[in-house]
Amino acid sequence: TDLQPLKEVYADYFLIGNAVSISDLVGQRLDLLNMHHNLVTAENAMKPSYAYNTARQFDFQAQDELVNLIQQQDLALHGHVLIWHQQTAEWLHTSDDGLVLSREEALANLRKHVKTTVEHFGEQVISWDVVNEAMNDNPANPADWRASLRQSGWYQAIGADYIKEAFIAAQEVINENNWDISLYYNDYNDDNQNKAEAIYQMVKEINQEYAKEHNGEQLIDGIGMQGHYNLNTNPENVRLSLEKFISLGVEVGVTELDVTAGGEHAPTERELQAQAYLYARLFQLYREHAAHISRVTFWGLNDATSWRSAQNPLLFDRNLQAKPAYYAVIDPD
Ligand code: XIL
């Protein structure tokens, strides 16, 4: 194939990532991954529920297997994820009777989970999603970020400060070891202005407080805009959110990009073109702000294995062939 590698086209802008499972790290899929990308995120393997065995002890065997395969390639690794309301062992914050644990117990579990995981992977990762999807979808009063938080198990047991506590626990391990690892807050519906405002207020307050307590040091290094978009997404809203986050002085990662088009049928030419157009608009925007964007990660290699497979959201089709969206990303102008 004579395609231009995405990672070369964007070498002067930001890293190009993708989401992987073990089955992507072999044969043709591995070739495509290596050709276009220099960063990966584990699509599922490094989520909190997979860090424990049935005896509720830490067990990183499956995670290590994937990470070891990644380390054999020329790929950086982004850690996903430490604290989330999904794919998490419930007992970390909720008793077997379904009652939330006391604040002290849940906080101890949160700190232990974060510290042990960060310690375990060390500098095999360049960054971590420390907290994922803590915010409600369309907060009514985004100026009050605490009132905008999802009522997750972690929130119910600990309260709004579980977020800052998770970042502090990660930062402590990093400082003790003198590691260079960036810490991210990651969320979706990032183009929704109410949600973006609530995230902005949260990161601003947490970072200001921490800076006061720690000689001006930064706690939250980056905001992850997942970027799960569709053909109705207005790139001007993406711009507003991106610029709002950049104004906080943090880096932005586009962490899980995909653009659904159509559904339950082979994509029509019109859908493929509309999808390509939105990808082009997004990459124009990302290029414009490249100084503040650390990476753009696609959420899957091709339409066949995407988590939103029915809606064909990626750059490569079911046969791993480049779609119009690929050509739009290569040359968005
Ligand atoms: C998704 C995976 O792609 C699926 O395979 C899994 O069944 C559910 O999780 N936001 C996130 C990702 O942060 O972890 C999610 O990944 C997609 C939405």
Structural account:
Helix content is 38%, strand content 16%. With 333 residues, it is of the alpha/beta class. Helix 7 packs parallel to helix 8 (235-246) and helix 9 (269-288) runs parallel beside helix 10 (324-330). The mean pLDDT is 97. The structure holds (3S,4R)-3-hydroxy-2-oxopiperidin-4-yl beta-D-xylopyranoside. (3S,4R)-3-hydroxy-2-oxopiperidin-4-yl beta-D-xylopyranoside binds at residues 43-44, 132, 188, 226, 256, 307.
**Number of helical segments?**
10
H/E element string? Answer: HEHEHEHEHHEHEEHEHEH
Number of strands: 9
Average pLDDT number: 97
Total domain modules: 2
Portion of residues within helices:
25-40%
Tell me the strand order in the biggest sheet: 1-2-3-4-5-6-8-9
**Please, what is the CATH homologous superfamily of the largest domain?**
Glycosidases
Per the CATH scheme, the topology name of the largest domain is: TIM Barrel
What low-confidence regions span 5 or more consecutive residues with pLDDT below 50? none
Per CATH, the class of the largest domain reads Alpha Beta
Query: How far do the termini sit from each other?
Result: 23 Å
Shape: globular
Biggest pleated sheet: 8 strands, parallel, barrel
Task: Explain briefly what this protein structure is.
By secondary structure, the chain is α/β, with parallel strands linked by helices.
